[in-house]
Design brief:
Elements lengths: L5 E8 L5 H8 L8 E5 L11 E6 L2 E4 L4 E4 L4 H14 L7 E5 L7 H9 L7 E11 L3 H7 L1 H8 L3 E5 L8 H12 L4 E4 L23 H9 L20 E8 L5 H15 L3 E10 L2 E8 L2 E2 L3 E2 L10 E8 L3 H7 L17 H12 L3
Parallel strand pairs: 1-6, 1-7, 2-5, 2-6, 7-8, 8-9
Antiparallel strand pairs: 3-4, 4-5, 10-15, 11-12, 11-15, 12-13, 12-14
Helix pairs in contact: 4-5
Length: about 350
């Protein structure tokens, strides 16, 4: 990844959660004045009062110097278009991109575009996903809407909005519901979008910090299987739908074994894999692994192990995916490195591959 790649932050959340209010507040901070804001439909975002001119079609200049544009067609085309105009001087320069999703949107296709699209490779890096949940309505939305649960599952930070309007006792219940889906994300209450940008940006979605401490904290927070609870602590209707669990693997894995396993996981069970995050022992070295459905980030080698624990440990947030099947699929991690460099089939390695593949078909 190019060192000058522009950071991209995705702001997601269900209908009426307060994404636009948050965006308005963030754009008032000096640190974010060089931002480009991308939204799904321009008319839906209440920042018209900030518009002062229209440098070019589809791009508005805001009074604070930020730029705002709407997705016109495919997101890839929109990103390529603004980068071309930035290079030619048609629009002012920007040093960060904020993408606000619509309330019913699945954020995963946007993540996929930023991370794996070949036309955009080297231009952008995913800095993080901010999820906004409504303290008044989110508990019922989590129980009834898969989109709301997916938005929480892929978020690095959760902002609880409208806390000043919530009934007494509602916030602990909402936090319990959120942590049951994604215990690793930090949760911050906000009122009318007021939040310190330092809490939201510069996290490095895939890398998790150069020493892996953030990933280790995330794993520790999720280190037990959780079934989401509904109102009053009763099992929610989606208790068998979205689950979180941590798996461990004692032996170092080879590059070939990890690649084989990830290919099978993403290929056969990608839609059910809402999120995967972990530290993997690859031939004795620590690597951060991060995936969202079929989007597999490039593994990042850490400068050092974050603790004395040298085991591979991974947290899964899944939808309708069996924990035991994933654990059995770890047989593929034992694929020898030599298998990738020889025309001959190793019967033992092939048997491990077949056994692992059975867990996904």
């Amino acid at each position: 990844m190019a060192s000058n790649a522009l950071p991209v932050t995705i702001i997601t959340g269900f209908l009426g959660s307060g994404k636009t209010t948050l965006l308005n507040r963030l754009l008032q901070h000096e640190h974010l004045r060089g931002s480009l804001v991308i939204i799904n439909e321009f008319g839906e975002v209440g920042i018209d009062h900030l518009l002062v001119s229209t440098p070019v079609e589809n791009v508005r200049l805001l009074s604070n110097g930020c730029l705002c544009c709407e997705v016109r067609g495919d997101l890839v085309d929109t990103l390529a278009d603004v980068m071309r105009k930035r290079a030619s001087g048609e629009i002012p320069p920007f040093d960060r991109i904020l993408i606000e999703t619509t309330g019913l949107a699945d954020p995963v296709p946007i993540i996929r575009t930023i991370v794996v699209d070949q036309d955009l490779a080297g231009l952008f890096r995913l800095d993080g996903v901010i999820g906004v949940v409504d303290a008044v309505h989110a508990t019922s939305q989590i129980e009834s809407q898969i989109e709301a649960r997916k938005q929480i599952a892929v978020s690095d930070v959760i902002l609880v909005s409208k806390t000043d309007l919530a009934e007494e006792g509602a916030l602990p219940e909402l936090e319990q519901a959120v942590r049951a889906i994604n215990a690793g994300s930090e949760i911050f209450p906000v009122v009318r979008g007021e939040v310190d940008p330092a809490l939201l940006f510069g996290r490095g979605h895939a890398a998790g910090g150069s020493d892996g401490a953030e990933v280790d904290r995330w794993i520790d927070a999720n280190n037990r299987e959780r079934a989401p609870l509904g109102i009053g602590g009763r099992p929610a209707r989606h208790a068998e739908d979205v689950r979180t669990f941590t798996l461990f693997h004692d032996e170092p894995v080879s590059v070939n074994g990890l690649t084989t396993w990830l290919s099978m996981l993403a290929g056969f069970r990608g839609p059910q894999l809402l999120r995967l995050k972990g530290i993997v022992n690859v031939d004795g070295e620590p690597y951060v692994l991060h995936a969202v459905q079929t989007v597999i980030h490039e593994a990042v080698r850490l400068d050092r192990w974050p603790s004395e624990d040298r085991r591979t440990r991974m947290v899964f947030i899944v939808r309708g995916l069996d924990r035991a099947a994933i654990e059995r699929s770890f047989a593929a991690l034992a694929m020898p490195e030599a298998a990738a460099n020889t025309p001959h089939i190793d019967p033992a390695a092939y048997a491990r591959f077949v056994e692992a593949a059975k867990q996904f078909v």
